[in-house]
Amino acid sequence: QVQLVESGGGLVQVGDSLRLSCAASGRTFSIYALGWFRQAPGKEREFVAAVSRSGDSTYYADSVKGRFTISRDNAKNTVYLHMNSLKLEDTAVYYCAARPVSDTYFSRNYYLQSTYGSWGQGTQVTVSS
Asked: Is the pLDDT of residue 54 over 80?
């Protein structure tokens, strides 16, 4: 499995932007599809965004579509989550996760947390008014 470490969280205001990073250990980063999930206080963890191992396909939750962008840099073993136009409801702990899976199979269940074998410790994002 790959080890994941998130960073970049913090306290921002409504409408601000923030970029989260998730650095992975190991030399096989390119075989992993990656996802971002979040958990708000008192709520279950939910899917936010995902990118296939090839980087050709990206997926988003409806709540963040058009505002968030996921990207990966295989040379740096890092996946990013660019968050724009942040809202109060984006406040949560954000987790990145990884799974070694083909693009085709990933497209069927990228949103399922149970399919990801590696998880980071999370980074807090707080959006204030």
From this structure: yes
